[in-house]
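// run 5 | inverse folding | seed 20
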């Protein structure tokens, strides 16, 4: 089992920045990839970014490229999402997720943290 706890959400004006963090505990040695997803009211959950635990290789959805940066700290078992130049359309509940080696989907999810960007 892996437990994921997010922190860092809040209210920010458009153009501002927020940093989200996700702390992983439990069987963290089995994690191959961690990702961030978001779900806005009335919309489906969408992928935001992911990072490979072993070498830090990252990937982003087009709408956040150049504005968001995902990083990981293997020693602390944390993954962070630095969000700059925030837009009202970034408003959503952001959740982190962990995927085990050999898994085709994410196995564990955090409870989520609210990010609200005002115009």
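// decoded
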């Amino acid at each position: 089992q892996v437990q994921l706890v997010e922190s860092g959400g809040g209210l920010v004006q458009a153009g501002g920045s927020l940093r989200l963090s996700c702390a992983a505990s439990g069987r963290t040695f089995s994690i191959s990839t961690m990702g961030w997803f978001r779900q806005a009211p009335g919309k489906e959950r969408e992928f935001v970014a992911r990072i490979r635990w072993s070498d830090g290789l990252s990937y982003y959805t087009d709408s956040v490229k150049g504005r968001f940066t995902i990083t990981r700290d293997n020693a602390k078992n944390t993954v962070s999402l630095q969000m700059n130049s925030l837009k009202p359309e970034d408003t959503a509940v952001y959740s982190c997720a962990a995927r085990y080696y050999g898994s085709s989907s994410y196995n564990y999810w955090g409870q989520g943290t609210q990010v609200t960007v005002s115009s």
